[in-house]
């Protein structure tokens, strides 16, 4: 198959949701359709329901064994679908943000009863900022939930989206009869009381037809007609270009658990979702069709087996073909590397692959060469953008609890930070190390991993910071900047990329700095133009 056809075939996306909305269930149903798994319950997702370290460790151990669940690939209607796993737990939000740099589109799952929840808001905001095409799936229609129009309103208002329903429920909860599919113009009916199976799919071009009454009853037929009239009156027609530009989001209703409304969405998804999109590097925009291979590391996964401390770096191929045993330039190290056993991912397995195409994810065994955000090319010096660090929410000093093993501790901290587990800030004044995290859970994870993987022990001590602000580099002669550095020296640190960071201790002191030193530019993410 030609290179261009291979690109066109690929759909690389992520499913995002607040925990419990049904992401795992939906993923599983998609894999069933793709024939990638045979039964439900086969996907061991990184579901972290309780914020307990023991759960996390257990899950990590499982993941160490079946790391392939980070990328689930299958074929459906001749398309190669790559689902990138995104943890829903808020303490792992950074991991999800980074994974979102590698997707070409997303599906947002919302619980029909709970509506838009906190994590959904945060994740959708990141996608909206990057104009990532989004499809919304409103789940659990077999349960009593909110009115469909109310929910659509909430999605528009809270998530700042412009929606257009491509399916519409007929009843809900106990009265749930089925779904009208505006995309294919047909009705799917639930079977009997159990509501577990699709009884029938009936083509329905003409909603005025009396057949409708016969099938779903007079009352439901009237309501459906009214609802659809409202849909047509209130919402814009589906516009593929607007969807692809991230300006319009189609909405589907269904029940992942009952496998209802899922196929409709998947069929529409493979028709409309984008194949690999162009990606911005600092130097230029790169398109998938370019012959030379480029790609970037968006995730690093540690192998949990302490005997083999190798890691797997996940690389998204942006352009060209990635070939086994071919040398590629590791841009940050300015060094050529060859990979004899790159992994490709299929459903739950990973296997060595000779060639991968744009949109694909390859897993490269790594002994410490890679950091998140690293770029591989065939020689061109490129730096892919869009993998910023956000300000952590928690800050603690990390202390060495076993002076005989400080080398191990430093190595461990270094590698865990490369993986993106947390952020390290080194105080300029005294060289002490401060770890910043999104959730408190990470501190326990770091402590556990330092001990079990590196044989090092650490303790923590509170560091009174409120926010990390990245400081725009300034000309050396700038007096205001020098004064800022002098007055705030206790709060200045350097991050892992060598950027200067101001660790503000309160909102008030941050505002004071902004007022007193207006030429000192502070940023709330590590990447800025
Ligand atoms: P998540 O990955 O987004 O966290 O959600 P997950 O799929 O694990 O679903 C969360 C819970 O919601 C699960 O129940 C799941 O069975 C249920 N669920 C998912 N889709 C539907 C649906 O369409 N209808 C209904 N009624 N429930 C749905 P659980 O009891 O927490 O877990 P389990 O023991 O069933 O696995």
TrEMBL record:
Q: Which PROSITE patterns match?
A: G_TR_1, G_TR_2
The residues that cross the membrane are none
User: Which species is listed as the source?
Assistant: Zeaxanthinibacter enoshimensis
Q: Does the keyword GTP-binding apply?
A: yes
Q: Where is the Tr-type G domain?
A: 8-277
Supply the alphabetized keyword list: Cytoplasm, GTP-binding, Nucleotide-binding, Protein biosynthesis
Name by which UniProt lists this protein:
Peptide chain release factor 3
Q: Indicate yes or no for the key word Transferase.
A: no
Q: What is its main location?
A: cytoplasm
Localization recorded for this chain is:
Cytoplasm
Q: Which residues form the signal peptide?
A: none
Q: Which GO terms describe its biological process?
A: regulation of translational termination
Role, per record = Increases the formation of ribosomal termination complexes and stimulates activities of RF-1 and RF-2. It binds guanine nucleotides and has strong preference for UGA stop codons. It may interact directly with the ribosome. The stimulation of RF-1 and RF-2 is significantly reduced by GTP and GDP, but not by GMP.
What Gene3D superfamilies is this protein classified in? P-loop containing nucleotide triphosphate hydrolases, Peptide chain release factor 3, domain III
Molecular function per GO: GTP binding; GTPase activity; translation release factor activity, codon nonspecific; translation release factor activity, codon specific
**GO CC terms for this protein?**
cytosol
* Family note: Belongs to the TRAFAC class translation factor GTPase superfamily. Classic translation factor GTPase family. PrfC subfamily.
Q: Where does GTP bind?
A: 17-24, 85-89, 139-142
């Amino acid at each position: 198959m030609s290179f261009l056809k291979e690109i066109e075939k690929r759909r690389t996306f992520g499913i995002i949701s607040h925990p419990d909305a049904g992401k795992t269930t939906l993923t599983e149903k998609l894999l069933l359709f793709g024939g990638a798994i045979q039964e439900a319950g086969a996907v061991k997702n990184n579901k972290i329901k309780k914020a307990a370290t023991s759960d996390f460790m257990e899950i990590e151990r499982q993941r160490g064994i079946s790391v392939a669940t980070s990328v689930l690939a299958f074929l459906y209607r001749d398309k190669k679908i790559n689902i990138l796993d995104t943890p829903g737990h808020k303490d792992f939000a950074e991991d999800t943000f980074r994974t979102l740099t590698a997707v070409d589109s997303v599906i947002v799952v919302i619980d029909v009863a709970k509506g838009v929840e906190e994590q959904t808001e945060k994740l959708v905001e990141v996608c909206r900022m990057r104009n990532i095409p989004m499809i919304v799936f409103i789940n659990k229609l077999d349960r009593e939930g909110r009115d469909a129009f109310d929910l659509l309103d909430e999605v528009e208002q809270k998530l700042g989206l412009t929606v257009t329903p491509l399916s519409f429920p007929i009843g809900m909860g106990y009265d749930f009869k089925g779904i009208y599919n505006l995309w294919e113009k047909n009705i799917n009916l639930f079977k009997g009381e159990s509501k577990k199976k699709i009884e029938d799919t009936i083509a329905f071009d003409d909603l005025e037809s009396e057949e409708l009454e016969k099938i779903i009853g007079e009352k439901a037929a009237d309501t459906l007609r009214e609802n659809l009239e409202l849909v047509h009156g209130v919402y814009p027609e589906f516009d593929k270009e607007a969807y692809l530009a991230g300006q319009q989001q189609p909405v589907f209703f269904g029940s992942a658990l009952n496998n209802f409304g899922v196929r409709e969405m998947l069929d529409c998804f493979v028709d409309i979702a984008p194949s690999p999109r162009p990606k911005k590097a600092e130097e230029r925009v790169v398109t998938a069709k370019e012959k030379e291979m480029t790609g970037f590391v968006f995730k690093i996964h540690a192998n949990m087996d302490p005997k083999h401390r190798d890691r797997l770096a996940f690389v998204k191929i942006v352009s060209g073909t990635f070939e086994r045993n071919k040398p590629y330039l590791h841009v940050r190290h300015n060094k050529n590397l060859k990979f004899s056993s790159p992994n490709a991912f299929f459903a739950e397995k990973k296997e060595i692959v000779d060639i991968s195409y744009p949109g694909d994810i390859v897993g490269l065994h790594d002994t410490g060469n890679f950091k998140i955000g690293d770029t591989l090319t065939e020689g061109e010096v490129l730096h892919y953008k869009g993998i910023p660090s956000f300000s952590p929410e928690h800050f603690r000093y990390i202390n060495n609890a076993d002076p005989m093993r400080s080398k191990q501790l430093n190595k461990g901290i270094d590698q865990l930070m490369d993986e993106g587990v947390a952020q390290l800030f080194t105080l300029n004044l005294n060289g002490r190390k401060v770890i910043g995290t999104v959730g408190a859970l990470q501190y326990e994870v770091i402590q556990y991993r330092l001990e079990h993987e590196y044989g090092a022990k650490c303790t923590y001590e509170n560091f009174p910071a409120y926010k990390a602000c990245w400081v725009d580099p300034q000309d050396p002669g700038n007096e205001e900047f020098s004064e800022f550095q002098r007055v705030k020296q206790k709060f200045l640190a350097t991050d892992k990329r060598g950027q200067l960071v101001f660790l503000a201790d309160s909102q008030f002191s941050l505002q004071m700095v902004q007022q007193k030193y207006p030429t000192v530019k502070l940023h709330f993410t590590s990447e800025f133009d």
